[in-house]
Amino acid sequence: MSQTTKWSAASRGRFPKRELRAAWIATVDHIDWPPKGVVDPEQQKREFVDLLEQLKSVGINAVIVQIRPTSDAFYPSKLVPWSEWLTGKQGTDPGYDPLAFMLEEAHLRNMEFHAWFNPYRVSLQDEVGRLADNHPARRIGVIPYGGKLYFDPGDPFAREHIIECIMEVVEAYDIDAVHFDDYFYPYPVVGVDFPDEETYRRYGRTYADKADWRRSNVNLFVKEISRRIKEAKRHVKFGISPFGIWRNKSEDPNGSDTEGLSGYDALFADAKWWVEDPDIKLDYIIPQLYWPLGTPAVSYDKLANWWRQVTGNRDIHLYAGHALYKVGSMNADEWADPEQLPNQIIFNRVDGSVKGSAFFSARWFAENRLGVTDRLKDDLYAYPALVPPMPWIDRKPPAPPVLESVVESEEGVRLTWTSTDDDAAYDVIYRFEGEGIGDVEDPRCMVGAVRRRPGTLHGRKKCSYVDTTARKGRRYTYVVTSVDRTHNESAPSNAMTLL
Length: 499
Known about the structure:
By secondary structure, the protein is an alpha/beta fold. It has helices at residues 9-12, 41-58, 84-87, 98-108, 156-172, 197-203, 210-232, 263-266, 271-276, 300-311, 340-348, 364-367, 372-380; strands at residues 20-25, 62-68, 112-117, 121-123, 142-145, 148-151, 177-180, 237-240, 284-285, 317-322, 354-359, 402-408, 413-419, 424-433, 446-451, 461-467, 476-484, 496-497.
């Protein structure tokens, strides 16, 4: 077994104050939630709350929740049927609005909610007759491939339908981001080409090469949905998590020094183009870097550095996708090393250009293989982090709040403050030993955050927080800041010392 050096965040002196720490919550086939066989609404809600509480305890500050797994919905939709993963039967009302519930619970814990859509996948089986009666596949053509059904990315009617489905959510719900993963054209079945020849003849006559036409179809979709999102709600982020390899250097001199499947050639996903095209408003990219550090054919570090170069000096955040599910796998010595994933996170933090991580998937935190969850909780994520702001969306911070009282009580130290800034989405509490304030950029001084509830942001807003971690009889100084929904932070409030 190969063992790498154990580095702690403390030993490296790196506790970033701003870092995305996200978990994918996959709903298709009950991967993460809801558990298979659980159809009671109240039990589904309890299971989701328990999952959020666990993620919060690890240090996760954003969840990427799959709300359209197979051209269906985890919300009441006018365009697609209810998801079968909620009730066991597609089209059956689960008795509540899961998206509204999940969104409220995530925001209550001050987590970002990224609405994850699978655009083209229609079904995990290949018979249209088994879909719900109101399924759009009954009026928009679909293609069976590899035992599944897909909308044809080359069909402009399918493309517009998918965009309308996404915009239905953007306009109706207070989501923080629209998210796609790596599924565009389906992963290839060996020896079987995706059967879109008819669509190619109809719409791709100007393209001599079918592969170029397919990439153009995906590019058109990405460009159009980015435009529509920003026109509707500028603050809603748009992010994609592509396959980790764009192209290999053997295929393209601009590619990475790797040997593996290429997202550009196999999935017709030109992720490099999405980053570079000024007409595509992509706010973040999370390449799925699901390989170990230092392996010969494909290595995490080589890919991370390649993506650093592609995204450098652009208005886009680079986050790393981590294969949490591979930790402890006996199929490869590298994943049997308890330091593999922690050292990937430390590698990310070297120069600050990788601004966070996303983990696939949420269920694996409970497994705690090789103690990786404990390592995150007790070391790498021992202190909280704010989601990094995106100044190209908004750079104006809210006005600072006014701290009114700091009083010791039986429960801890109770703070009260007021704010007059309607743009504030949450407030952050900082605590310093003794009199006077220290560095508010040090996350070790952050002791809590309070989310503003919708509908309570107008006029003077009185807020409170109890610091239950304060030691009795100690002298502390507190300040509070206000943060808007794109994570611009105000200057500190006036300071108050516990007497």
